[in-house]
Amino acid sequence: MNYDVFLFDLDDTLMEFDVSEQNAFRNAFIGAGLAEGLDAYRTEYKAISKILWRQLEEGTTTLQELSVTRFRQLFDKFGIELDPTDFAESYLAFLGKEAHLIDGVLDMLDRLGDVRLAIVTNGFFKAQIARVACSSLNKRFETIVSSEEAGFQKPRPEIFQETLNRLGVTDTSRVLMTGDSLTSDIRGGNNFGIDTCWYNPNGLENTSGHKPTYEIRNWEEFCVKEKAAN
């Protein structure tokens, strides 16, 4: 690798999302007086959410619709009489307090040295900004671009163009997009015409048809590749 502009996904790339989601989900339900049945609720919620996030990538729903629809469907499933809009806001407020970095991320960023850094996320803007602000990632990135704010979600090329516009970067050959999702991060980078790095800590097989420029299992591998290039 030989780049000086690095774009990163946030969830399950720089931060552990499952822990954050679990804590926020639990706190929101306990706050609503529903401490019982959390395991069943979350299992169903994750199934619903997975479908809706895929629809977001495909452009058949919006982030605002996703936010409320996942809880509306969940409450309908279990006969829970809560306002899904209010609950969605409560959940995101709790999510904004959760920041759990993946091992090796800070060392990797330190070793990159004097480069341009940005986060490109399909997550909710306020929650993502809050999570970064309360973590050791705070002030390390020049900009955080969310699909909610930009009006375009990964893998749409427009969100990457918006990011480079904010950075004032025109030479795409110097840009690398890194993330864990083949259908969002890698496909999106490919669509935009920049090199990509697939963060694949579990060694999953790539059957998506979206080919990354690089593939890593951990952040030490990322540092080794970058050091070798320089």
* Helix/strand class: alpha/beta
Say how many strands there are: 6
Uncertain stretches of 5 or more adjacent residues: none
Instruction: State mean pLDDT (0 to 100 scale).
Output: 95
Taken in chain order, the helices and strands follow as EHHHHHEHEHHEHEEH
Strand share of the residues?
5-15%
Number of helices: 10
* CA radius of gyration: 18 Å
User: Strands of the largest sheet, in order across it?
Assistant: 3-2-1-4-5-6
What's the short version?
The chain is an alpha/beta fold and 230 residues long.
If you had to describe this structure to a student in words, what would you say it looks like?
Helix content is 51%, strand content 12%. The mean pLDDT is 95. The chain has helices spanning 17-31, 38-58, 63-78, 84-95, 105-112, 125-133, 147-150, 157-167, 182-192, 219-229; strands spanning 5-8, 116-121, 143-146, 175-179, 195-199, 214-216. A six-stranded parallel β-sheet has the order 3-2-1-4-5-6, sandwiched between helices. The chain is built from ten helices and six strands. Helix 4 packs parallel to helix 6. It has 230 residues and is α/β, with parallel strands linked by helices.
Describe the secondary structure blueprint for this structure.
Blueprint lengths: L4 E4 L8 H15 L6 H21 L4 H16 L5 H12 L9 H8 L3 E6 L3 H9 L9 E4 H4 L6 H11 L7 E5 L2 H11 L2 E5 L14 E3 L2 H11 L1
Parallel strand pairs: 1-2, 1-4, 2-3, 4-5, 5-6
Helix pairs in contact: 1-4, 2-3, 3-4, 4-6, 5-10, 8-9
